[in-house]
């Protein structure tokens, strides 16, 4: 408790508070720019944080991370271009809402859901970080395999209306995940001798291409027929009725996001996609999904921001980053001479709580920002298309080139821009493709690792892993549910007929 | 810690920023003596296969804090990720061999050269200096059945132990091959993971029985008493692990380390090679660089000259060639 108060006290330091505010503003801004997300920004700022104290630099980076995750949703909603990959699920419903003229409403609910999710996860982290650090040891390859299987089983329901088309897109994603050097055999697969493909198809060019560029192509081809970007007649802050409607999806998203974020190697993007699907599954207004459902914005937004807090757990407690952004924060910590690990909780609790405190503050700052300047942000979409899309294109090229300084990634991005356009034209959704790409390699690797670990007795091996069995059980139940329900309906029908 | 690269961030902007800042600041206090042919004439590019912010990237940037002053010219990092060093090697090979391109070489590069057809091969490397050398440590789960060297040798002779490695055909894989042979164990069955952190977790979780890791990768778990460092694969004990014997003390003639250093490609003029060797080594003998080494859990003396670096590269090349052939992974 003393350490907790000590950590909170750092916010009384004007320099650290200033860094937190600056970090949040910067984070929201870069998050809103497509292609330049929190991880890119932190990488760019890494050398500058070396000069300041560990607490101040961590507070700054934590704030950028939180802000960027929220900022990503602004462009996702307004121009259907996730500023940050984690906002790709938000674009699905958020942009539809904006098209209906409810951009302000979507932005408002996104700010509220993000803040609730973010604060929820930080509180969970404060309470449970030391415990979660221990539980992480029980998560081995068999458990990851079961988790990936669970995720892929949901692909049919993510994205468009047609389960068949969703499955085709997901299968395409899984196929793409096989590109690159196979971890367990060291053999190059489908790289055709390109170095850019040896480490697999990068998420960054795929996401920028599928979302930013495809949108640009789509807009460009419709320009003369529609002649307008978006209708923004009403910019409205959400009221109590909307909050009540979204409460369930916000809590669902917060819980899922914290849990998924806390798993090493899974980050905000997965959390948002899973939350989108679960929100839809548990929603009372399923018919609204795909037409601009406010719940479909709230769930993923709560999830991707709560994943931020969750991802800090394995990063700080185990030294295993849960996302690319936390990986950069980890590097920054090490440069500062702070070594993450379970012992950090005993040795430097104040430092930890200072990070948590700054993240709490960042969540509150962008809540205010999001609610009161939603109208200002909405103006981003009023930028004339002739200015906006060339800018998006330039930023897309830079974003694809930046991480690896490779033109190959730019070509890949252009290729996926065309793929994205074809997807749109033929009624496919890019979301299951992304899920297949993310989960496909996890599924394959963890299965191969499990088989190597269990050696000959893999059946008995899996039977001896309760967490994996539980997850597989949930998957099977989920897949079988429609048949069971149909069977039930038929039995009921039969009894009624007999009664009549 | 080549294994624990942070995912790629964007380097292009910072590079410009750094060279702009660094150029402005550093050019001022140094008035260069006139020379017949000035070297360096333009910024020296340090080519690494690591993404921005990863362990290897930081090593290069730490060297570059002092090296520009020693060499009298700017330096910039070029991050060419992809292909386990293949992209970096190909990029360096595409540049003129005039001393303005410094290739950061790790053992992964040597393995990549053995496994892929690249425009520069092992014989093209001209060693400049070694930057870091981090002894690998054989680790087991604390309180597990392999918690002593005797137990390891006895059980390892009977069955094939499961070892966590970073990838098939990686540095770890070669080390585990060499260690098993030197210790008289049955060939280990390798379970590949994405990084050192994953291996530690799976070691504690009991999914694998052995791991060859650097001290820093498992420091937290060693301190917490969850992981037991069994043998140090170096000639001397580590300062951080005074109670852990070396493999040689236990009668196993084998050593292995994760090393990073700098090379230029064959054809670079001799005098420039000499300037680079001198300047880069001197830049790594500064207190700031030593401080970086010790704070990241590495030996303060791991920066070394071209001779030691050349010998180490050659030894590694021959062990790797053998290991890859035996493991069925050679080109």
Automatic annotation (TrEMBL), chain A:
Coiled coil: none
UniProt keywords, alphabetically: Membrane, Transmembrane, Transmembrane helix
Transmembrane helix as UniProt keyword: yes
UniProt entry tagged with the keyword Membrane: yes
Domain DUF112: 17-434
Superkingdom of this protein's organism: Bacteria
One Pfam family here: TctA
Entry's transmembrane regions: 12-36, 42-65, 105-132, 144-160, 167-187, 193-214, 250-276, 316-338, 350-374, 386-403, 410-428, 467-485
InterPro entries attached to this UniProt entry: DUF112_TM
Signal peptide per UniProt: none
Protein name: C4-dicarboxylate ABC transporter permease
Organism, as annotated: Teichococcus rhizosphaerae
TrEMBL record, chain B:
Superkingdom of the source species: Bacteria
Stored Gene3D superfamilies: Bordetella uptake gene, domain 1, Periplasmic binding protein-like II
Family: Belongs to the UPF0065 (bug) family.
Protein name: Transporter
Organism from which the protein derives: Teichococcus rhizosphaerae
């Amino acid at each position: 408790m003393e350490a907790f108060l000590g950590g909170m006290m750092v916010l009384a330091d004007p320099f650290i508070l200033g860094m937190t505010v600056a970090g949040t503003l910067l984070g929201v801004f870069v998050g809103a720019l497509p292609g330049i997300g929190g991880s890119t920004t932190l990488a760019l700022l890494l050398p500058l944080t070396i000069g300041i104290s560990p607490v101040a630099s961590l507070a700054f980076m934590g704030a950028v991370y939180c802000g960027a995750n929220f900022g990503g949703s602004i462009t996702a909603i307004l121009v259907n271009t996730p500023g940050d990959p984690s906002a790709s699920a938000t674009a699905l419903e958020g942009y539809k809402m904006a098209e209906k003229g409810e951009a302000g409403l979507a932005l408002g609910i996104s700010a509220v859901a993000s803040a609730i999710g973010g604060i929820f996860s930080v509180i969970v982290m404060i309470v449970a970080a030391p415990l979660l650090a221990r539980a992480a040891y029980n998560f081995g390859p068999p458990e990851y395999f079961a988790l990936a299987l669970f995720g892929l089983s949901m692909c049919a329901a993510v994205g468009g209306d047609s389960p068949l088309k969703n499955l085709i897109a997901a299968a395409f994603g899984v196929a793409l995940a096989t590109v690159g050097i196979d971890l367990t055999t060291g053999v190059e697969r489908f790289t055709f001798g390109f170095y850019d493909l040896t480490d697999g198809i990068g998420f960054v060019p795929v996401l920028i291409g599928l979302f930013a560029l495809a949108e640009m192509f789509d807009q460009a081809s419709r320009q003369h027929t529609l002649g307008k970007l978006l209708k923004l007649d009403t910019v409205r802050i959400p009221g109590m009725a909307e909050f009540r409607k979204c409460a369930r999806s916000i809590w669902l998203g917060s819980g899922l996001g914290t849990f998924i974020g806390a798993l090493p190697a899974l980050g905000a993007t997965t959390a948002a996609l899973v939350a989108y699907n679960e929100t839809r599954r548990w929603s009372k207004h399923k018919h609204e999904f795909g037409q601009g459902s406010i719940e479909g914005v709230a769930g993923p937004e709560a999830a991707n921001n709560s994943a931020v807090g969750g991802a800090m757990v394995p990063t700080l407690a185990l030294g295993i980053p849960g996302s690319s952004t936390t990986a950069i924060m980890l590097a920054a910590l090490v440069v500062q001479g702070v070594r993450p690990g379970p012992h950090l909780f005993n040795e430097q609790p104040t430092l930890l709580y200072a990070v948590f405190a700054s993240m709490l503050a960042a969540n509150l700052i962008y809540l205010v920002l999001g609610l009161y300047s939603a109208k200002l942000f909405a103006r981003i979409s009023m930028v004339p298309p002739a200015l906006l899309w060339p800018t998006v294109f330039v930023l897309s090229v830079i974003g694809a080139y930046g991480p690896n300084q490779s033109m190959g990634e730019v070509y890949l991005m252009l290729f996926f821009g065309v793929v994205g356009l074809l997807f749109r034209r033929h009624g496919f959704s890019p979301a299951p493709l992304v899920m297949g790409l993310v989960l496909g390699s996890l599924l394959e690797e963890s299965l191969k690792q499990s088989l190597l670990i269990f050696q000959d007795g893999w059946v008995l091996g899996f039977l001896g892993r309760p967490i994996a069995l539980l997850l597989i059980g949930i998957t099977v139940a989920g897949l079988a549910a429609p048949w069971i329900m149909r069977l039930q309906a038929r039995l009921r029908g039969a009894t009624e007929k007999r009664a009549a | 810690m080549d294994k624990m690269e942070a995912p790629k961030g964007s380097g292009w902007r910072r590079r410009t920023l750094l060279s702009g800042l660094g150029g402005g600041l550093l050019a001022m206090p140094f008035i260069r003596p006139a020379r017949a042919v000035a070297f360096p004439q333009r910024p020296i590019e340090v080519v690494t296969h690591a993404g921005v912010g990863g362990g290897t990237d930081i090593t290069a940037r730490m060297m570059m804090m002092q090296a520009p002053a020693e060499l009298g010219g700017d330096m910039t990092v070029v991050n060419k990720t992809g292909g386990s060093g293949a992209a970096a090697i190909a990029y360096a090979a595409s540049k003129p061999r005039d001393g303005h391109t410094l290739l950061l070489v790790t053992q992964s590069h040597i393995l990549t050269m053995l496994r892929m057809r690249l425009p520069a091969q092992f014989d093209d490397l001209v060693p400049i200096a070694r930057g870091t050398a981090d002894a690998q440590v054989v680790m087991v789960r604390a309180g597990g059945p392999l918690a002593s060297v005797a137990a390891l040798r006895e059980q390892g002779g009977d069955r094939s132990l499961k070892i966590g490695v970073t990838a098939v055909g990686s540095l770890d894989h070669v080390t585990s091959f060499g260690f098993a042979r030197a210790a008289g164990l049955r060939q280990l069955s390798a379970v590949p993971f994405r990084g050192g952190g994953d291996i530690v977790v799976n070691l504690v979780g009991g999914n694998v029985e052995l791991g060859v890791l650097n001290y820093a990768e498992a420091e937290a778990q060693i301190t917490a008493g969850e992981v037991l460092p069994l043998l140090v694969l170096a000639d001397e004990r580590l300062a951080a692990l005074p109670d852990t014997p070396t493999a040689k003390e236990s009668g196993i003639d084998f050593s292995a380390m994760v090393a990073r250093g700098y090379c230029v490609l064959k054809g670079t003029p001799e005098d420039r090679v000499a300037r680079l060797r001198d300047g880069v080594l001197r830049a790594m003998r500064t207190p700031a660089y030593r401080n970086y080494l010790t704070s990241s859990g590495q030996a303060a003396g791991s920066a070394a000259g071209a001779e030691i670096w050349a010998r180490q590269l050659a030894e590694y090349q021959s062990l790797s060639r053998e290991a890859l052939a035996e493991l069925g992974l050679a080109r």
